[in-house]
């Protein structure tokens, strides 16, 4: 755990040196969500109806936008290979990158989402449920994205291939995340959807680092 903690600190220090790496995804999230009322309708009932889907699609795309920065730079300058040669396990590297990625991108999205929810006419209860759903769902997206990013390291047009690989895997999280917020906004039970998001987080958190580690070693070799 101490080694993973030091790796997370390293990742965060690298990211915070280039502030654009964590500002861009959050700015993208805000821009996308605030443009929907302009394109669809400013009518409050309509906004509340589309809010769950808008928030989740924007979150998914924002996280996808941030993945490249956490892996490709270390691959290009040889840092990943040096970490592996120094005896650091691939599992620890992947886990530290996922944690740092979520802290820098996922957590700000969770905190900004209620403000967007208010703009989209979500009530207070639905806003709190949206935060809970994002708190469970965004780490799963980071874990799944780590697998795709590890598979596409060093490939030409890797960003395009990454999108094609991970978007289908993101869909279940998107469906249940949006369904959770929708159920809360309509006063229906949502515990089942929350349970699915929690189960997805546990499963992705357990299996994804192993899969991403294996893929990363193959890409480097």
From TrEMBL:
<keyword id="KW-0201">Cytochrome c-type biogenesis</keyword>
<comment type="function">
    <text>Required for the export of heme to the periplasm for the biogenesis of c-type cytochromes.</text>
</comment>
<feature type="transmembrane region" description="Helical">
    <location>
        <begin position="129"/>
        <end position="153"/>
    </location>
</feature>
<keyword id="KW-1133">Transmembrane helix</keyword>
<dbReference type="GO" id="GO:1903607">
    <property type="term" value="P:cytochrome c biosynthetic process"/>
</dbReference>
<keyword id="KW-1003">Cell membrane</keyword>
<dbReference type="GO" id="GO:0005886">
    <property type="term" value="C:plasma membrane"/>
</dbReference>
<feature type="transmembrane region" description="Helical">
    <location>
        <begin position="22"/>
        <end position="40"/>
    </location>
</feature>
<comment type="similarity">
    <text>Belongs to the CcmB/CycW/HelB family.</text>
</comment>
<keyword id="KW-0813">Transport</keyword>
<feature type="transmembrane region" description="Helical">
    <location>
        <begin position="190"/>
        <end position="212"/>
    </location>
</feature>
<keyword id="KW-0472">Membrane</keyword>
<feature type="transmembrane region" description="Helical">
    <location>
        <begin position="159"/>
        <end position="178"/>
    </location>
</feature>
<dbReference type="InterPro" id="IPR003544">
    <property type="entry name" value="Cyt_c_biogenesis_CcmB"/>
</dbReference>
<protein>
    <recommendedName>
        <fullName>Heme exporter protein B</fullName>
    </recommendedName>
</protein>
<feature type="transmembrane region" description="Helical">
    <location>
        <begin position="47"/>
        <end position="71"/>
    </location>
</feature>
<dbReference type="InterPro" id="IPR026031">
    <property type="entry name" value="Cyt_c_CcmB_bac"/>
</dbReference>
<keyword id="KW-0812">Transmembrane</keyword>
<dbReference type="GO" id="GO:0015232">
    <property type="term" value="F:heme transmembrane transporter activity"/>
</dbReference>
<dbReference type="GO" id="GO:0017004">
    <property type="term" value="P:cytochrome complex assembly"/>
</dbReference>
<keyword id="KW-0997">Cell inner membrane</keyword>
<feature type="transmembrane region" description="Helical">
    <location>
        <begin position="99"/>
        <end position="122"/>
    </location>
</feature>
<dbReference type="Pfam" id="PF03379">
    <property type="entry name" value="CcmB"/>
</dbReference>
